Amino acid sequence: MSKAQVIDEHAVIHSTFTIEKTYPHPPARVFFGLTDKEMKRRWLIEGEGFEIYEYESDFRLGGADTSRFSFRGGPELTNDTQFQDIIPSRRLVFTYRMTIGGKPLSVSLVTAELLPSGKGTALTYTEQGVYFGGAEDVAGREHGSRVLLDKLGEALGE
Amino acid sequence: MSKAQVIDEHAVIHSTFTIEKTYPHPPARVFFGLTDKEMKRRWLIEGEGFEIYEYESDFRLGGADTSRFSFRGGPELTNDTQFQDIIPSRRLVFTYRMTIGGKPLSVSLVTAELLPSGKGTALTYTEQGVYFGGAEDVAGREHGSRVLLDKLGEALGE
Q: Using the beta-carbon criterion (under 8 Å), do A12 and B80 form an inter-chain contact?
């Protein structure tokens, strides 16, 4: 292997994306959906094609979540989340590290901001991340996050 | 207080900056300086004007650092760091939460990449962050990080 290839092997990509979404539920309900252990399990790692090996959640400032799962028979995925800032019904900041098949995939910093919008809630979800694979991981993360936030809406009874 | 002011009170700023710096030491030495508990203490929280109240470091994947200190008689600052990705002498990814005077200040995701450059090391330091105060915090963080990376150079015997 050439030196250039060795260097590329550890190259990273930094990326930021923002998703805006409105839910027909008040901020307290959306915040509950984002943070409650059983609600979160439903939209984050459950559903058709998911197999769950481990899921622990300790929602508090400085607390952590851990999950191990696979999707559609693929390699094991892990998610280790740390809760960094909590303003109930208003703001949630967390960081999370993911691995795939035992290899580092990404580390992300997420800010979820909730504001009243009519009788519902306007969510602004900003994810700043570093990715250890290719550009397809970045595009996949934004798409995947949109899918998860739609699943959150379903879990809330949208 | 008007509703607009209440909303502004919790507004956030997202920002990313990159600092590039070359050290005359090989990557293994720079990595040691970035991660060794006593070396880190020297450039991160020690020196003229600093008062240290607490400093603990547990450098390993999933490990954490905690420090409490003040600078020039100002309010207490805290730094809670989590180590997210470690490739010795090559890459370090960590997240850290800061508070000032008991109030949340910022949460950041840092990627430090080290590459050989002649007999020395080229460091690329990328900080993606969310700030809970004003724009001056963002400018201050970039400036402060440059100062710290210069102090790292001094600690390494630059």
A: no
The answer to whether B106 and B14 have CB atoms below 8 angstroms apart is no
Subunit contact A109:B129, Cβ cutoff 8 A: yes
Query: Which pTM was predicted?
Result: 0.94
- Do B107 and A95 count as a contact with CB atoms less than 8 A apart? yes
What chain A residue is nearest to B4 in terms of C-alpha separation? A115
Looking at the predicted structure, is the pLDDT value of residue B86 above 90?
A: yes
Domain boundaries, chain A: 15-44+87-156
Beta bridge partners of A127: A17, A110
Beta strand pairing call for B77-87 and B91-100 = antiparallel
- Whether the predicted pLDDT of B6 surpasses 90: no
| CB–CB contact B7 A115 (8 Å) | yes
User: Looking at CA atoms only, how far is residue B97 from chain A in angstroms?
Assistant: 7
- The DSSP bridge partners found for residue B144 are none
The pLDDT tens digits of the residues spanning A115-142 come to 999 999 999 999 999 999 988 899 999 9
Tell me the pLDDT tens digit for each residue of A81-98. Answer: 999 999 999 999 999 999
Mean pLDDT across chain B: 94
The hierarchical CATH code for the domain A15-44+87-156 is 3.30.530.20
CB neighbourhood size of B82 (10 A):
22
Four-CA torsion B21, B83, B78, A113, nearest 10 degrees: 100
* C-alpha separations of A30 from A1, A62, A92 in Å: 50, 21, 11
Rounded to two decimals, the ipTM of the complex is 0.94
Q: Which residue of B has its CA nearest to A131?
A: B111
Residues from chain A that touch B115, judged by Cβ atoms under 8 A, are 7
On average, the pLDDT of chain A sits at 94
